[in-house]
Amino acid sequence: MKTLRSNDRAGFDWSARTDRMFNDLESGLWYFRTREGNNIGPFRYKSEAEEMLCRFTEGVAAAAQKAATVEKLRFRPGAVSRVDETAYFLASQRG
């Protein structure tokens, strides 16, 4: 997911964000931090943590995209026409 938004800087290298990736010096294991401040890990290798961070951000972006799309309601043509016929019938019986 390498698309730019209107307020993104074209020359900015997002992979260089070091504040998200960190190494626990005692155990030697790698973690990444989410925007909410949660630490995800441990990972044995930095490359593994980077791959999982990429998958995590893609998953969050996909969920946000899905939440932003409006699903069009679909009706069976027969069900809609029966409702219209019933409403027409009831209206014609009143007056």
Layout of SSEs?
Layout: E1 21-24, E2 29-33, E3 39-43, H1 46-68, H2 77-94
Description:
43% of the residues lie in helices and 15% in strands. With 95 residues, it is α+β, with helices and mostly antiparallel strands. The protein has one domain (14-94). The chain has a 3-stranded antiparallel beta sheet with strand order 1-2-3, covered by helices on one side. A hairpin with a 5-residue loop joins strand 2 and strand 3 (39-43). The longest helix has 23 residues, at 46-68. The chain starts with 20 loop residues before the first strand and ends with a helix. The mean pLDDT is 77.
Q: Could you provide a short overview of the structure?
A:
This protein has two helices and three strands, in the order βββαα. It has helices at residues 46-68, 77-94; strands at 21-24, 29-33, 39-43. A three-stranded antiparallel beta sheet has the order 1-2-3, covered by helices on one side.
Mean pLDDT across all amino acids? 77
Biggest sheet, open or closed, and with what strands and sense?
3 strands, antiparallel
Spatial arrangement of strands, main beta sheet: 1-2-3
What's the structural domain tally? 1
Helical fraction: 40-55%
Question: Which key features would you list for this structure?
Answer:
alpha+beta, rod-shaped, about 100 residues
